[in-house]
Amino acid sequence: MLSQFLLTIAFKSALSVGKSVIGIGSGSGSSDDDDELLPTPDIPDLSDPITGDPSEDLNPINEEMFSSWALFILLFLLIAALWSSYYLAQRRIRAVHETVLSIFYGMVVGLVIRLSPGHYIQDTVTFNSSYFFNVLLPPIILNSGYELNQVNFFNNLVSILTFAIPGTFISAVVLGAILFIWTAIGLDGINISFVDALSVGATLSATDPVTILSIFNAYKVDPKLYTIIFGESLLNDAISIVMFETCQKFHGKPAKLSSLFEGIWLFMTTFTISLLIGCMIGLLIALILKHTHIRRYPQIESCLILLICYESYFFSNGCHMSGIVSLLFCGITLKHYAYYNMSRRSQVTIKYIFQLLARLSENFIFVYLGLELFTEVELVYKPLLIIITAISICVARYCAVFPLSRLVNWFYKAKSNGSTTNASGSTEEIPYNYQMMMFWAGLRGAVGVALAMGIQGEFKFPLLATVLVVVVLTVIIFGGTTAGMLEVLNIKTGCVDEHDESDDEFDIEAPKFINSSSSRFGSSPYSDFNAQNAASSSRAELVPDFPPLAEEMENEFNASSPRISNVQNIKESIGSLFKSDSQWFQTFDEQVLKPVFLDSNAQNSVNSKSPTPNQNGTFSPNDNSQ
Amino acid sequence: MLSQFLLTIAFKSALSVGKSVIGIGSGSGSSDDDDELLPTPDIPDLSDPITGDPSEDLNPINEEMFSSWALFILLFLLIAALWSSYYLAQRRIRAVHETVLSIFYGMVVGLVIRLSPGHYIQDTVTFNSSYFFNVLLPPIILNSGYELNQVNFFNNLVSILTFAIPGTFISAVVLGAILFIWTAIGLDGINISFVDALSVGATLSATDPVTILSIFNAYKVDPKLYTIIFGESLLNDAISIVMFETCQKFHGKPAKLSSLFEGIWLFMTTFTISLLIGCMIGLLIALILKHTHIRRYPQIESCLILLICYESYFFSNGCHMSGIVSLLFCGITLKHYAYYNMSRRSQVTIKYIFQLLARLSENFIFVYLGLELFTEVELVYKPLLIIITAISICVARYCAVFPLSRLVNWFYKAKSNGSTTNASGSTEEIPYNYQMMMFWAGLRGAVGVALAMGIQGEFKFPLLATVLVVVVLTVIIFGGTTAGMLEVLNIKTGCVDEHDESDDEFDIEAPKFINSSSSRFGSSPYSDFNAQNAASSSRAELVPDFPPLAEEMENEFNASSPRISNVQNIKESIGSLFKSDSQWFQTFDEQVLKPVFLDSNAQNSVNSKSPTPNQNGTFSPNDNSQ
C-alpha cells in the first residue's frame, strides 16, 4: 500500500517536473550553440529527407533526454522479450518462439515510434551495422565457440565444412544468378550488375542459428543434426561476410574469370589466417595464465581474458581478416586449454558473463530487426522483388543442401567401405529427413541485414528493404513451423544427455523433468562435455578441474546414456569415426600441446587423479570447513 | 616452437594481406556512394578544422577497419592498465597507482595518435560524453550501490549528507566566484557570466572515488573515514550533475535572487524524486522475484535484473531526474531486499558481472581522460586560467571540508551531550587528521570532464581544456601522494575486517596476508556485511541465504574484530548512534518491509534458522551428493 502510494506520487511528480523541464528546455530556445562536441551514439542523418536540420530544436539537454528515452525503449523491449521467454517456458508453449515475439514487439514499437511526432528517438533506435558488428555480434560468437561441444563438432567436421563452405558458395551464386536475371528483365526498374547481385546473394546466404537451435534445445533433438546445423550456421556467417566483402571489392569493375580465382584465393587466405589468429590468441591466453600468478587476482584475470578475446576480433577485423572466424576459434581454444589454467572464480565468471552477454545480444538483434522495418525511413519496398527473392532463397537453399548431402553420404559410404555399416538404423550419414530439416533450418538472420547495409550503388535502398523483409519472413515462417516440421519429419527428439544434469552447480531451483524443455531452457544440452567435472569439482573440493584423458572421455561419452539405444548407436559410430579421423591430433594434443599450454598442476592431476594442494597450501582435498 | 612459428607466419601474412587489401580499398577509389546508412559510433565531426571532409577518402570497408583499430587500441590500453594493476599488486608497489598509470598510458598513446597521419582513429577514440553517461558510468554507480556496506553508510549518513550536499554547494560557489572574479579581470581574454562560472564550479565539485578508495582498500584504512569519503564522492557526483544542469537552464539569462531559490527547489525535488524512483524500481525487482517462478531460469533472471536496474537510470534521466541517484538507490535496495529472492546462481552472476563491468569502466575512464588530452583537437589551453583554477579547487575544497567538519563535530557533541563521551580516543566525530585526509581526497574525476563537455557559449573550449587539465593534475598529484599522506597524518590503517575473509567462495588462490594489500586487491573489505552468510550458504548447503536479524547483525558487527580496540571503540560508538537514530527504520524494515518484499522461504528461514527444502524438494540441507 505504502509503496504503491509512493510510487504514484513519484511517477506523477516525475512526469510533471519532466514536462515542465522539457517546456523550459524547448521553449527558451537556448540552443544558441550547436554543440558539436556532444555527439550522441547516432547522430541524426543530416541528409535525411524528412527530418531537415536535426539541431534546429535540440539543445544538449534535450538531446540527452531523447537518447535516454530511446535506450529506455530498447531495454524495455528486451525486458518484454525475456519476460515472454520466461512465460513461454513456464507454460511450456512451444508453438510460438521468443525470437518471433521479439521481432513482433520490435515491429509494434517501431510502428508507434514511426507514427508519433518527432524524429529523434526514431533516429536513435535505427539499426546500426557498426554497433551490430562491434557490440552485438562478438558476444554471441564468443559464447558459441566457448560453449561448443568440441567432440561433436570435430566428429562432424566433414559435414559441417561441406555445408558451410561450398554450401554457402552455391547458395550465394544461385541466388545471385536468379536476382541478376530477374533485374535484367527490368520489371521493377532495378538494374544491377552480376557482382552486385552476388553481393545480395552473399548477404542472404548467412543462416542464423539462434531461433532454430533454441527450438532444438527445447526438443532435445539428436545431437548430430544439432551439431551440423549449429556448425554450419556459425561458419557460414563468417563465409558470407568474407564473400560479401570480396564482392564489394569488385563493385563497379567488369566481371572477369580471373576475378573468380582471385576471389577464391582471397577467401581461402582470409579464412585460414583468421582461424590461425584466433587459435594463437587463445593459446596466448593459456600461456599467460600458466606462466603468471594472475589467478590470484580473479577480478583482473576475468577482465583480461574477456578483453584479450575481444582483441582477437578487432585485430582480425583491423587486418581485413574475418573477426568472426578468429573469435570463434579463440573461444574454442580458450575452452580447450586456457580454461584449465584459470582460477575457479574466473571459470564461473567467464561462463556466466559470456552466456548473459550472448543472450542479451541475441534478443537485442531480433528486437532491432523488428524496429528497423518501420524506423528506417529510406527503405524502398518493391513487392515483386521481395517475392522473387523469398522464393529464390528457398531454391538456393535446396540447391545447396540436397546435392551436398548426397556428396557427404557418398563420401562416408566410400570411406566405410569394407568396415561394418553404420549402426544408426539408416545406412546413410545424413538421411532424407535430416536433409529436409536442414533445408527448413535455413532461416536468415541479422548478419544478412547488417551486411546489406554495406551495399553500394544507387539501388541500395530497394535491396536493403528486400533483404530485411526476407529475413523477417524466414524467421517468422520457418522459425514458426520448425517445431511442427520436427514431428512431420519424424526427427528423433528427447535425446537426454546425462552430462547435462549437473551442468551448473547453482542451478538448483529448476525442476527436473525428463524430456521437458522448460527445465533447461536456454542452455544447450550438448554444449559442454566437461560440465560434470567442472560442477563436481567446485562443490566441496574447490580444486581446479582438469581434462580427463582421451580414453576416459571416450568411455564417459559412450557410457552416458545407456538406456537410449539410438543415441548410443549414433555415438558409437561417431566414436569410431573420431578414432580413425582425429587420432593423430588427439595424440599430438595429449603429448605435446597440453603439456605446453596447461599448468603443471593440471598435468600432475591428470596423471595422479588426486587433488594436490596449491602452493599456498590453503586447502586440502575434502576441506568443507573453509 | 610450433606455435611461435605459426604465429610469425600468421602475423606476417595477416599484415601483408591487410596492407594489400588496404591498398585495393583506398587505391580503387570505389567510394562513389557516401554511405549514410553505415554510421560508425563516432561520426567524424564535419566542422572539424583539420580534417576537412571525412568521407573523402573513406569507403565503408576502410571505415570499418579504422573503427576496428580504434577499438583495438582502446582495449589494448585497458589490458595494459589491468596488467599494470596486477604487476603493482604482485610486487606490492603502492607508491604508483593504477589509475595514474592508466592516464599516463592514455596520454602516451594519445600523443602517438595525434602525431601520426590520418584522423579517423583520432576521431573515434575521442571522449564522448554520451558514451560516458550511458555506458561507462552506470556500471560503476550500480556496483557502488550494490557493494555498499549499508550499516556503515547509514551510520555515517549525517556526515555524508553534510559533506555531499552543502559541501558540494559551497565548493561550487567558491570556485565559481573565484573564476568569475578572475575572468572579470580579463587577463585571459575570457569573459563569462556568473551562472557560467558556477557551471564550471559545479563540474569541478564532483570528486572521484576510484583512485582514493582503491588506495584506502590497499591500506585497509579505518572504515569510518572510508565510508564518509566513499559516500560523499558517490553523492556529490549526482549533486554536481544536478547543479550543473540547473545552471545550464539559467544560461544566458540575467542572474536573479529568485533564481537561487528556484534552483534550490529544483535541486531538492530532483534529488528526492530520483531517490524514490531508484528505491521503487529496486522494490519492484524484489516483488517480481518473489511472486514469480523466474528463479527457475537463472539466465533469464540475471538478464532481467540487470536490465531493470539500467531502466531505473534511463527512466530517471528521461524524466530529467538524476539517473545516478536512482541507480545508486536501486542498487542499495536491490542488495537489501531483492538479493534474498534471487536464485543462488543469479546472486553469483549479478555480483561478478557488476564487479567486472565496474572495473572495466573505471579503467576505461582513466584511459580515456589521458587520451582526451591529445586527441581532442579543439581544446584551447590557457595556462594562467589553469593555474588559477587548480589553486581555486584547493581553496574551495578547504572552504567546504573544514567548516562543515566543525559543524558535524558540533552536531555530534550536542547530540551526545549528557551521555558518555566518544570512546575512540578523540572527543570529536571527525578529528583533524581525518579532516585533512578528506581535504586531500578531493580528486576530481571523469564526471567533471563529461559535464564540462556540455558547457555552452563561446568560451566552451578554454573552459573544457581547463577542467580536463585540472582533473588530470588532481589525479596525478593528490592520487600519487595519498599513500604518503596516510602516513604523515597518522591515519589508522590495517583495520582488518574478519568478514572479509570469506568474501568469496571461489577466491581460493589468493594468498592470505594480514595487513597486505595484494591479497584482496580491488575488492572492498568494508563492502558486504552479509558476505559471510552468502559464502557459507553456497558451499555445502545450497540454500538461499537470508538477512540476519537486526540484533544478530549488531552483535556480529561488534564482535568482528575484538583484537583491534580502536576500531572496536569506533564501532561501538557507531552502534550506539545507530540504535538511537535508525531504530525506527530498522523496526519498520523488519516488521513491515521484509515480510512484504522477501520471499516467504526467506522469512521462514530467518525465523527458524534452518534451511527448508524448496517446493521441488530437490535438496536436503546437507546434500553434498547432488
TrEMBL record, chains A, B:
<feature type="transmembrane region" description="Helical">
    <location>
        <begin position="383"/>
        <end position="405"/>
    </location>
</feature>
<keyword id="KW-0915">Sodium</keyword>
<dbReference type="GO" id="GO:0000329">
    <property type="term" value="C:fungal-type vacuole membrane"/>
</dbReference>
<keyword id="KW-1133">Transmembrane helix</keyword>
<feature type="transmembrane region" description="Helical">
    <location>
        <begin position="197"/>
        <end position="218"/>
    </location>
</feature>
<dbReference type="Pfam" id="PF00999">
    <property type="entry name" value="Na_H_Exchanger"/>
</dbReference>
<feature type="signal peptide">
    <location>
        <begin position="1"/>
        <end position="18"/>
    </location>
</feature>
<keyword id="KW-0472">Membrane</keyword>
<dbReference type="GO" id="GO:0005802">
    <property type="term" value="C:trans-Golgi network"/>
</dbReference>
<feature type="transmembrane region" description="Helical">
    <location>
        <begin position="158"/>
        <end position="185"/>
    </location>
</feature>
<dbReference type="GO" id="GO:0005769">
    <property type="term" value="C:early endosome"/>
</dbReference>
<feature type="region of interest" description="Disordered">
    <location>
        <begin position="602"/>
        <end position="626"/>
    </location>
</feature>
<comment type="similarity">
    <text>Belongs to the monovalent cation:proton antiporter 1 (CPA1) transporter (TC 2.A.36) family.</text>
</comment>
<feature type="transmembrane region" description="Helical">
    <location>
        <begin position="352"/>
        <end position="371"/>
    </location>
</feature>
<dbReference type="InterPro" id="IPR006153">
    <property type="entry name" value="Cation/H_exchanger_TM"/>
</dbReference>
<keyword id="KW-0732">Signal</keyword>
<keyword id="KW-0812">Transmembrane</keyword>
<feature type="transmembrane region" description="Helical">
    <location>
        <begin position="437"/>
        <end position="455"/>
    </location>
</feature>
<keyword id="KW-0406">Ion transport</keyword>
<keyword id="KW-0050">Antiport</keyword>
<dbReference type="GO" id="GO:0015385">
    <property type="term" value="F:sodium:proton antiporter activity"/>
</dbReference>
<keyword id="KW-0813">Transport</keyword>
<dbReference type="GO" id="GO:0005770">
    <property type="term" value="C:late endosome"/>
</dbReference>
<keyword id="KW-0739">Sodium transport</keyword>
<feature type="transmembrane region" description="Helical">
    <location>
        <begin position="66"/>
        <end position="88"/>
    </location>
</feature>
<dbReference type="InterPro" id="IPR018422">
    <property type="entry name" value="Cation/H_exchanger_CPA1"/>
</dbReference>
<dbReference type="InterPro" id="IPR004709">
    <property type="entry name" value="NaH_exchanger"/>
</dbReference>
<feature type="transmembrane region" description="Helical">
    <location>
        <begin position="264"/>
        <end position="289"/>
    </location>
</feature>
<protein>
    <recommendedName>
        <fullName>Sodium/hydrogen exchanger</fullName>
    </recommendedName>
</protein>
<dbReference type="GO" id="GO:0007035">
    <property type="term" value="P:vacuolar acidification"/>
</dbReference>
<dbReference type="GO" id="GO:0015386">
    <property type="term" value="F:potassium:proton antiporter activity"/>
</dbReference>
<feature type="transmembrane region" description="Helical">
    <location>
        <begin position="461"/>
        <end position="483"/>
    </location>
</feature>
<feature type="domain" description="Cation/H+ exchanger transmembrane">
    <location>
        <begin position="85"/>
        <end position="487"/>
    </location>
</feature>
<feature type="transmembrane region" description="Helical">
    <location>
        <begin position="100"/>
        <end position="117"/>
    </location>
</feature>
